[in-house]
Amino acid sequence: MFAAVDLGSNSFRLHIGKYEGNLIRVVKSARDPIRLAAGLDPSGNLTSEAIERAVRCLRNFKTVLAGYPIDAVRVVATNTVRIAKNAADFLPAFEAAIGLPIEVISGEEEGRLIYLGVANALLGSSERRLVIDIGGGSTEIILGNGHEITKVESFPIGTVKHSQQFFPQGRITAEGFDAAVLTVRSLLEDAVPAYQPEFWRNAYGSSGTVRAISDALYKNGFGDPEVSLDKLLQLRDYCIRKQQIEHLDLIGIKPERVAMVIGGLAILIGLFQELNIDVLKPIEAGLRMGVMWDLYLRSTKRDRRENAVRDFLLVFRADQVRANLVADMARAIFIQLKPNNAQWEHYVYWSSLLHEVGMLISHTAYHKHGSYLVEYGDIPGFTTREQKLMSRLVLSQKGNLRKLGDVLGDPDFVKAVVALRLAVNLMHARVELDFKDFSLRMKNKIELEIKADWIALHPTVNFWLRKEVESWREVGIDFVVRSRN
Length: 485
What we know:
Layout: E1 2-7, E2 12-20, E3 23-32, H1 48-66, E4 72-77, H2 79-83, H3 87-98, E5 102-104, H4 107-121, E6 128-134, E7 139-145, E8 148-155, H5 159-166, H6 174-188, E9 202-205, H7 208-219, E10 227-228, H8 229-242, H9 258-275, E11 279-282, H10 287-299, H11 304-315, H12 320-336, H13 344-353, H14 366-376, H15 384-396, H16 411-428, E12 438-442, E13 446-451, H17 452-457, H18 459-474, E14 479-484
Parallel strand pairs: 1-4, 4-5, 6-9, 9-11, 13-14
Antiparallel strand pairs: 1-2, 2-3, 6-7, 7-8, 10-11, 12-13
Helix pairs in contact: 1-3, 4-10, 5-9, 6-9, 7-9, 8-9, 12-13, 12-16, 13-15, 13-16, 14-15
Protein name: Ppx/GppA family phosphatase
InterPro entries: ATPase_NBD, GppA/Ppx_hydrolase, Ppx_GppA_C, Ppx_GppA_N, PyroPPase_GppA_Ppx
Domain Ppx/GppA phosphatase C-terminal: 305-466
């Protein structure tokens, strides 16, 4: 059983699902329209009132989750948390409320998870497809073929800001709609050539916004649930005639969602016009379903992050033989150090694979270039926090340790750094790892015991070890090297 919690810009949502056959069946859902994006002040900070609403919701979600035998759960945060300037201040309170780590995902990763949910809902269809998700803070457009994603982009266009900007005080005018649609088309125009109908067969709308608009069209007499430009324009004209959002009487749309639907309607019209869409099919799948599928794939050891790291190596033309050698040694050394959290093993391995990606930029200070690429590059499957962690490990592979700052207070991080630095130096010295020659342990200090004849055979490693002892001493950690017969 898997659970996904989506901290969206308009609503927080929870899905609990069970894998059955070829499907994940949702057994419990929860939603709280806390309007997080509307809680951003003019300076881009989330207000205390919005934070309090979010914390209350997350406490309730924690209670719901506790009632199910869940094997794995992920909490993902999207656009508003990505852009909030005070995110570092309120995220600890959010995590304490739900009792779980919160993963702030990029817009592109959000798009990939959305597509993963849609592709699995379509039961393995190999069609070429376009998927659109209009959220409260951003819009994702994904192009794919079957389960493979060929292109994904995220745009800072969301229903909350669009409603606030173009329909202030709930006023609906033709001029407001025209400006809202033109803004969407202007922001998309540079990207649209790659998403034209020649590249896909069917188009799907995965978000609550698209499904709400589809319901409004069908239940209010504008036609069947499939969405077309003609129906959208009829709904637009109806809204303009009503003049005020509070005067709209749309069957099937909850009153608190009407304003978001109006902003979403303008965005969807712009998408139809710019992408030349004839028909958009609403689908009951998206981010939360994608998160649960991702958890299922990880549980079956089909972690897409592994492929993403390998692809990143190819993009930056890193030497794969050297990368594999260092990664295998670093992982073996790290395991010998007996970390407290076994999950670190993955990050040590992936960071070690990526340790030389910065060489494409320059052989001088390549660890710094690599660190930047890993932190800010687009690596599918990874959260912002995960990439920052791996970035620091890549940075740690050489040079002084003072640059790592207070993260050296985490014993598992220290063990990871020791493993990577030792593996890199063994690779440079062309030495094979053999634990019969040396043993490594760490408790209050780092202790390395080496056979005396092995040291004599590898003088360059001995040179490095002396420098390593000094580097660790500079940050207040003892690194003791002993020889034995």
